[in-house]
Structure prediction request, 110 residues.
Amino acid sequence: MYRYYVKNASQFTIIDCYHILYCTANDGYTVIHTEGDEKYMESKSLTKFMDEIGYPYLIRISQSVAVNIHHIKHVRNKEKCIVLENRTELQYTLSFNELQSQIKKLHNTP
Prediction:
């Protein structure tokens, strides 16, 4: 089981990585969006965050967004949009074939 520890000045929170829906980059910070509309901010870039977390099901779909493939409901090729189970829509910049390949490869991993 993958877990990540988010800390601020007064506490730290343990997040089960499966519950991360997606992450966004914001001026050198990473915003972690989880189930239940909770958000956590980390003072590191999205690249550094993804390196540290090491969660294989969190894939980069653009320069500023990474998504947990376990929460993808639809991928719309024409709109270059991923729809999550909670109806959040995220734009992707990868080619449709590259995105499809990454998702298939990870879904076939135990």
Observations:
- The mean pLDDT is 93.
- DSSP finds two helices and ten strands in the chain.
